[in-house]
Structure formats: C-alpha cells, structure tokens
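Sample intake sheet
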Amino acid sequence: MFRRRTAADQPADTAAGPSGAEAQATGKGHPTPTRREAEEARKQRVKPPLTRREALRRERELARTQRSRTRRAMVSGDESGFLERDKGPVRKFLRDYVDSRRTVAEFFLPIVLLVLITSFVNSPQVRIFSTFLWVGSMLLVIVDLTVLRFRIKREIRKRFPDDPGRGHVFYAIARSTQIRKLRLPKPTVKPGASV
C-alpha cells in the first residue's frame, strides 16, 4: 500500500515517458525556468490584455525577444534558431561557398563611401579619380556577380540535383554584397578554404 511503485507496476502509457507534445509543453531541451519566471509566464498567458495599447505593447515585446533570440542563434551558428530562409543544407553550402572567396562586391560599400567623400573635394583631379573609381568598381561588381551566378548554378546542379533551386542565386548574391564582418549567420569558413 505505501511501497514505491516499480517500472513494472506503472501503467504502460506513463512508463514510456511523456509524448512529444507533452515533452514540448514541459519545455524539455531548455533550462527549467525558475518559479518566479514560470508564474510570470502563466500570468501572462491567463491574463487577457486590458486595452488595445497593452496588447500592442505585449506583441512588440514578444517580437523583440524573438528577434534577439534569432540574432543570438545566427551569431552562435545554432541552425535551429535561424530564419527559414537560412535553413537547410543548400543554404549552408551557399553561405560557405560565398564566404570562402573574396569578391569585389563585398568592398563595394566602402568604395561608394570613398567616392562620396572625394566628391566634396574641390580638386578636379580627385573628382575625376573618384568618377573612374566609381565606374570601374561598378563594372567589376557586375562581372564578379555574373561569374558568381553561373558558378552557383553549376555547383547546385552538381551537388543538389533534386533541389528545385528557387532563390538560391539571389541569396548568394545578396550575401556576397555584404561586408564580411557584418554577415549573418556568421561565416564559418575562411577565405581561400575549399568547400
């Protein structure tokens, strides 16, 4: 009557452990929240918003915490917290492929800033130089991105033949135009590495 139950004495459904939905509801896989945090979360779920302004404030707070969680995941490289556009083996390959090579496009924003600064100088020679720098960098970026486009299409056809390939080229081009240190998710390969 007062003895402990063994695994054999328990019913079959409780001996197997919680199901996937129950485990997700209890928050397994995450640190157990403190009592205060659990009570605050429960109060927030139970208590309806009093006014429209409070509901908007609550939505903004939830969106802010979700954005910060996603940013932390993208900085740390935890793919489970990535945005949908960054998930999957094809997108991982594209990020590594773009990050493994230096492109003219990643230096385009600093070049534009330099051209903008030199356009305010009164010297005609400096203005001519900045104009040539602007036109030359634009041509180099167009050529570089065109070559990248053909290479990306070829590599995707070779490595992922079953993939429909929608949006991959645009994803790679958009990443290659970003400054390397500001790219999210953070680069995991160094320039010159083989992918």
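Comment: The CA atoms of residues 34 and 40 lie 10 Å apart. The helical segments are 12-15, 20-26, 35-46, 52-76, 89-99, 108-118, 124-159, 168-176.
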